[in-house]
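Quick one: structure for this chain?
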Amino acid sequence: MQLQKTDRARAELKPGIRTLGQRERTLLLMADGSKSVRDFRTLFNGQGEEIALRLMREGFLQIQPGRAPEPALPSMLEAGKTKPAGPDRQPLPPAPAVAPATVRVSSDQFDGKRSLATTRMFLFDICERMFSQRHPALAGEFREALRNARERDAMLATSSRMIEEIEKITGHERADSISARIAMLMPAEQVA
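Got it. Here's what it folds into:
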């Protein structure tokens, strides 16, 4: 069964509209009418097939017209379930309610190494995106603070000040998402 995007998927992929996470959007981009659900099986640590099935249930993907469906999949789609969880498979969490088009949803996972260097680079990037054009003096202050932040506490203090300013500019939702990303990047506090 070859999958193709629906109008809903094409709308989701337009610039400025994000209701799905990065994995779901990536899968939508790959669904070009030449791949089946099974072709996505190995993606995202073995969760690609389940994500594709969920996107079908939610109306983002459809079977290419003129193709016969694979025998086992229609019953799973009708039941609203994916494959049963086995000892090596975790069930996919229920699909979240579709967020309004103006809300950005980020569900990408960070599996990299936590470090001050990674955190610093992320904060420099945020500084450039959020402050360099609108508030150049503030951007300069944050750049200098980030260059001098050599330890965890100094980095946390700088990021906290940045989050406060981001909240003033974009609101608490964006500030919360950036704060969550910083928490994922920051190395754990070392107990002496």
